[in-house]
Amino acid sequence: MAARTGKEFLDRLSQSRPTVHIQGETLTGGIQEHPAFRNVVQTYAELYDLQHSEEHKDVLTYASPTSGEPVGTSFLTPRTPDDLVKRRKAFKVWADHSNGMLGRTGDYMNSSLMALASAADWFAQANPAFGENIRRYYEKAREEDLLCTHTLIPPQVNRAVAGTQQAGGKLAARIVKEDDNGVVIRGARMLATIAPFADEMLVFPSTVLRGTPEDKPYSYAFAIPNDTPGLRYIAREPLDYDRPRHDHPLASRFEESDCVVVFDDVHVPFERCFALGDAELCNGFYSQTSSVVHMTHQVVTRTTAKTEYVLGLVTLLTEAIGIEQFQHVQEDIAEIITTLETLRAFLRAAEADAAVNEYGVLTPAWAPLNAARNLYPKLYQRFPQILRKLGASGLMATPTELDITGPAAADIEAYLQSATLTGAERVKLFRLVWDTCISAFSSRQALYEYYFFGDPVRMAGAYVKSYDREPHRAKVQAFLERS
Ligand SMILES: Cc1cc2nc3c(=O)[nH]c(=O)nc-3n(C[C@H](O)[C@H](O)[C@H](O)COP(=O)(O)OP(=O)(O)OC[C@H]3O[C@@H](n4cnc5c(N)ncnc54)[C@H](O)[C@@H]3O)c2cc1C
Q1: Cα(227)–Cα(200) distance, rounded to whole angstroms?
Q2: Which end of the chain is more exposed for a tag (fewer CB within 10 A), N or C?
Q3: What mean pLDDT, rounded, does the chain reach?
Q4: Is residue 120 classed exposed, middle or buried when 0-12, 13-18 and 19+ CB atoms within 10 A define those classes?
Q5: What is the pTM of this model?
Q6: Greatest Cα pair distance in the chain
Q7: Index of the ligand 1 atom closest to the CA of residue 447
Q8: Phi/psi of residue 26, nearest 5 degrees
Q9: Is any atom of ligand 1 closer than 6 Å to the C-beta of 325?
Q10: Ligand 1 pocket residue status of 462, Cβ below 6 Å
Q11: Does ligand 1 have an atom closer than 6 angstroms to the CB of 156?
Q12: What are φ and ψ of residue 152, in 5° steps?
């Protein structure tokens, strides 16, 4: 098989029967027709179609090492600097399509799977079968162009005690039984974005396990189809209200559902397991395999696209109402430009300083990517703040498409025109600004940027611990001692 088209993505989805609880209803399939999902699913279909467009197919695909057919570039194992550039360009094409608003396009998890499979020998330490399983799974995902989501953290019940101690150990997803051909999982995980329309669920290690005997049932990594019996999702209230694109320009295209994941005695066959009962292995899952580096390469490319979008938007906004010449407005625009150039510099440095890891994979430098992933969760919070400040009351003078074409049309033209735009044009622009900085969709975006990679506070702790500060400490110590 090869890189999918949008139709192939939708056809597969129509065969899938995931169990999704949403607004009091229980779906067992039919995701592509449900109002909460049909628009975002169409957007995902557009991404798959881009893989076949004349303009993008050379960047978005490469020849499969097994079939020779074109497969998605995010599966490409980078060996040369050109491979890394190709990967980044492919990430960018998809990120640009959603202005960086889609966090869970397939390339995010594909990047992880590529790195994990390259480090198959690392998995084989525990059991040679695990090495073989991850390699085979990656090839399957690549050849079938599967869309994967993942779920990592235990439910948020009482963070004062370890996941293993929640409700007497009866809450977080854990192995409750092992049989001749697999394990049985019971309990829950907190969240999985895009779960209702993904093909596969990757249930990977999360919070640092302590390696005590109690951790054993919570130490695992496996992948299962989205409609595995016993697996069910509880979706949050959708932020796509099925309103016209004019009125909700982002939510009507890019609303990725987030779901709680329940495992009701889900059977996972051994061939779908990559680690079992080994806390130490689980703790090194991302760092020892370079998986986190390749995921961050995708993430920083996406957030660069998002920052470019915000810069374009603020430019249109300030031109429209003639405020660009004021100094504090320029200061705000400069802040967005600085963020953009910082991200671009991080990406460039990560690629320029890439090195081959112990598994022969050309891996971007971690230091700049790590800096980027620690900065952006906070930097992004400023963008909606800036847009609200500069848009001011204009963000409330935002009638709907039906008003623009209805009885209020003449008033809108007369009173909502701007320095550079007609009334209708200005309302259209301001609805986009509104959906970026005020709507429920925009708040979820801000929360997503803050948390999706982990709690920034604990990430900062890990960052400080892992960063080699010794040369700098020694330098200052030497200065102190210089007579
Ligand atoms: C929109 C969105 C989408 C997401 N999508 C996914 C997904 O697809 N898959 C997935 O696996 N996860 C997903 N996540 C979850 C994400 O990984 C977590 O939000 C993140 O790891 C933080 O964990 P938490 O939400 O459980 O917060 P908590 O750990 O409950 O933290 C809540 C607050 O308490 C503080 N706190 C708690 N414990 C400690 C501690 N030990 N030390 C210091 N401070 C502490 C935190 O700093 C924070 O302020 C998503 C999150 C969001 C918001």
Answers
A1: 8
A2: C
A3: 96
A4: buried
A5: 0.97
A6: 83
A7: 53
A8: -115, 115
A9: no
A10: no
A11: yes
A12: -120, -50
Which of the 8 DSSP states describes residue 172?
A: B
- Which of 452, 458, 459, 464 to probe ligand 1 with, by most ligand atoms within 8 A of CB? 452
Whether the Cβ atoms of residue 98 and residue 252 lie closer than 8 Å to each other: no
Rounded Cα gap, residues 38 and 170, in angstroms: 35
What residue type is 352 in one-letter code? A
Residues in the chain: 483
| pLDDT digits 0-9 by tens, 82-138 | 999 999 999 999 999 999 999 999 999 999 999 999 999 999 999 999 999 999 999
Which residues 6+ apart lie within 8 Å of 158 measured at CB? 166
Distance 218 CA to ligand 1 centre (A): 18
Amino acid at 75: F
Between the CA atoms of 44, 49, 52 and 56, what dihedral angle is there, to the nearest 10 degrees? -60
H helices of 157-202, in order, are none
CA distance 418 to 322: 8
- The arithmetic mean of pLDDT across residues 271-289, rounded, is 91
Nearest CA to ligand 1 atom 10: 151
As given in the structure block, the two tokens for residue 318 are 């300030």
d(CA 77, CA 91) in angstroms, rounded, equals 14
Checking if the pLDDT of 482 tops 80, the result is yes
